[in-house]
Write a structure and sequence with these properties.
With 212 residues, the chain is α+β, with helices and mostly antiparallel strands. It is built from eight helices and five strands; from the N terminus they run E-H-E-H-E-E-H-H-E-H-H-H-H. The protein is globular and about 50 Å long. The N and C termini lie far apart (37 Å).
Length: 212
């Protein structure tokens, strides 16, 4: 079993209203599991070429949110270089609540696959942010800004993985979280003019780290 924290409290970006997010990996063949459709739709996972059995779940306890993955599903996510799974491997000890198995030996960095996975994830989030900016709802704008800050985190984590085979700094994107979420104006034109060039530059930097 593995129970770890993830999200803003790990990335050094928490606010007073931030939820506590957890990933739980467990062996339980008898649970009523769901598939990974949400993760495919939002770019967290590359769609497999062949149908496979997936077991995942989600529990929302107001300010405590748990993403549940059956053991074999989590191993599949590691093989696909899903970032949310890779983040669980290198966490500082204060964010690891329970660990009865190490998954480090179950993952070998494939830079080509890492590049595909991270770029797909970042692209999906940037496109979702653009769509949310078309809304006049305040909550949508905040979500859009968060998605853009996530794009920088994805690429920075990916670069660390490509260069060192591990995530060495979980707070690497704290500057962008502050600049994008807290400081940037709520206008898409601003992000196109001021933020997009930095994002594209970081994408190129990540690709170079992957050996492109």
């Amino acid at each position: 079993m593995l129970l770890v924290s993830f999200g803003s409290r790990v990335y050094g970006a928490k606010r007073d209203s931030s939820d506590r997010d957890f990933i739980l990996v467990m062996k339980d063949e008898h649970r009523t599991w769901k598939d990974l459709q949400w993760f495919y739709e939002h770019g967290w996972l590359l769609r497999p070429k062949y149908p496979m059995q997936e077991r995942a779940g989600f529990v929302d306890l107001k300010h405590w949110q748990f993403f549940l993955f059956e053991h074999q599903t989590f191993l599949m996510m590691l093989r696909q270089h899903a970032l949310c799974a890779l983040e669980c491997l290198f966490l500082p000890s204060e964010h690891v609540w329970i660990q009865t198995q190490s998954f480090l030996e179950d993952w070998v960095c494939d830079r080509a696959l890492l590049r595909e996975s991270i770029l797909h994830l970042a692209t999906c989030h940037w496109e979702e942010a653009e769509q949310l900016f078309a809304s006049s709802v305040q909550r949508d704008i905040l979500d859009a800004k968060k998605k853009i800050s996530h794009c920088f985190r994805f690429l920075l984590f990916g670069e660390q993985l490509a260069k060192t085979g591990m995530i060495t700094d979980y707070k690497a994107a704290s500057f962008w979280q502050r600049e994008v979420v807290r400081e940037a104006p709520e206008e898409w034109a601003y992000f196109q003019e001021k933020v997009l060039p930095h994002y594209l530059s970081l994408r190129q930097q990540f690709c170079e780290a992957c050996g492109e």
